[in-house]
């Protein structure tokens, strides 16, 4: 909170005006000079309230106030002059001692002579009924200096009666509430209501977002019916939602106290205030009392090219597994946001192919008009020689923290053009869907580009003639999640061929519960129970999962449970595992399932003793009072023991908000002929295929194919190296929050939180006829860094606090199946290695002349590896077949 000290007026009969005589605001007495003391101070900390741990500064001065003019027709219309004198700047932390940046420096050297002269030039304030009518100052003064005078002048605005109203002061047009008491008047300003032009943005998803809170209270002290002092306190606090150690606090205070009064100049006669102001000094100009924006000069700062030269070594491919790479990535984005198109294009054209993909990640993540123009000029979508760069650009667009209409319009324009690679064409449409969703989440659904993109997605899906185009538009809709697309999804889910039907149902699975209506569930029930046509197991199980996860009715649950025992072997086991997982993890449907299980015809040994190796399991990675991370793994096999689908999901929850952090799905089909096995019902004519699909931070990526067709399969089996196929690799700006704050003292503050990660998700599927064994492997490697900072700037002195955290981590999932016998042996393992977790705190105070104070602290810990159960019937048989795994691995043969 900021302690705002305003001393208003009047002191004793002949010295000041009585509160009782004015019903609206305060008033000065004629022919008096009011001598006051004023101070404003600001300090930054991590919200612990210990001033000795804070950084900041105090600006103090004497203040002379005189009444120049009063409207002869009304006492509550007056013009006053406010002059600051004897300005001083000092540390707010008195323990700084010899380390004080102000030690040995007088105000002209700290503030600069020209700034000090401007600060001590008087301003005029026209008050009507206690509210600011106009603020007058000299033109062409430094904006930062004028803001300090605006902060002082705003203290003279108040009313003496209780009530709620809107006032315009340095903070903007704000809602304020007055509470009048006998010995004081309290003004509470709702800072979140203030209308003021300031730059800023945030991440739309609350899990990755930042919670901020601001308060402002001003107290007018009254003694013997006179106001003798004013105190004000303003606070701004922030914290990251999922990592609450990233937090900061700004406390700003003002104090204005009356010391004495003496004889002053006589009132200037006149009925019009304009004539009076001209008589005082014709140079005065009416200026907004609302704080104006300014940027501090950066003398001798490196150019963008120089910044890049110091950054690029950290972004070499071999360094991307280190958190230092992510820190460098985040820092360079900040420089890109102030760079011109020509500067950015120059370093793009000059960079080598090894580092260029990382540079494309950074330029795209900057999300400015100049950076977008530069990258679009650099990339040639008609060429297939830069596919990797084009893909990195598109994925960075999909992960954009605050995309705008210009970016979506650019992708639509590219989609209508020609491409050197069809994969890139598909990715453009898929990512356009992700941008549509993000813009709609920020109330941008009616933007022209969004409307056009929606028509493109839905119209393309309705008119698609090729299977590839249908899949592309479905994937785009899987990102966009348009409610109006649900009828089309139901059509393709029920009537489409296998892969299309499966993709349509998995798209429906991503919709919020409010969109899964009874009509939608009717179609899903028909699919699961195969009322109209035979469907693949993957489609049927997905339909059943959607029903069970979206407020299922008694009969829906009963019919699904009754079907267990009548399904193909592995599907029986899978559906049984799904139901048991719902009960064990206490999912929302668990109450309804327990109700149905009271019927003996359903809950019996025959139904719940089906053998098989398919499974479904959900567990916690981390669990805290305010948050949780969960993982879920479901694996569906064909009756012959070959993997049909492996689905690994990780979710993050903060309160009621959630984030689908990742999903990696490996699918295979049509492989039974290799081992002379009989395909399951509905899957007799499937082509041989294996591939992987991923969702990363709520964005569906373009699927990757391992092989497609029998000849492609045999070719890759003979030449297979076992090396994983990369699904996504790059640097991602994950958290992006920026607030520019106008403190009511006149100082400018900034709150920024950026978080990024270097990520590499890869997967592989190995198949051995000789050993009659198949193995799937999914590997996640990430390096994460988060940096939160708060700064307060007066143009001549700046204080800042930076809190950061970083880690490097890995998660690997391996599933091995031996199908030489039935029931076949399955070993599932998920390794999470021990990870280092480092936290840093940097505090500083710095003069514009270069002198500074810096304090740094570091804390490091090791988070032990964890074992995650992957099945409800874990055993130790993995250890018999394979060599022992590391301690951080969990597994079991089933």
UniProtKB/TrEMBL annotation:
Residues 28-663 form the Vitellogenin domain. GO terms for biological process: cholesterol homeostasis; circadian rhythm; establishment of localization in cell; lipoprotein metabolic process; lipoprotein transport; low-density lipoprotein particle remodeling; plasma lipoprotein particle assembly; protein secretion. It catalyses: a cholesterol ester(in) = a cholesterol ester(out); a 1,2-diacyl-sn-glycero-3-phosphoethanolamine(in) = a 1,2-diacyl-sn-glycero-3-phosphoethanolamine(out); a triacyl-sn-glycerol(in) = a triacyl-sn-glycerol(out); a 1,2-diacyl-sn-glycero-3-phosphocholine(in) = a 1,2-diacyl-sn-glycero-3-phosphocholine(out). InterPro entries: Lipid_transp_b-sht_shell (IPR015819), Lipovitellin_superhlx_dom (IPR011030), MTP_lip-bd (IPR045811), MTTP (IPR039988), Vitellinogen_b-sht_N (IPR015816), Vitellogenin_N (IPR001747). GO terms for molecular function: ceramide 1-phosphate transfer activity; cholesterol transfer activity; lipid binding; phosphatidylcholine transfer activity; phosphatidylethanolamine transfer activity; protein heterodimerization activity; triglyceride transfer activity. Keywords: Disulfide bond, Endoplasmic reticulum, Lipid transport, Signal, Transport. Residues 1-17 form the signal peptide. Coiled coil: none annotated. This is Microsomal triglyceride transfer protein large subunit. It comes from Neovison vison (American mink). The gene is MTTP.
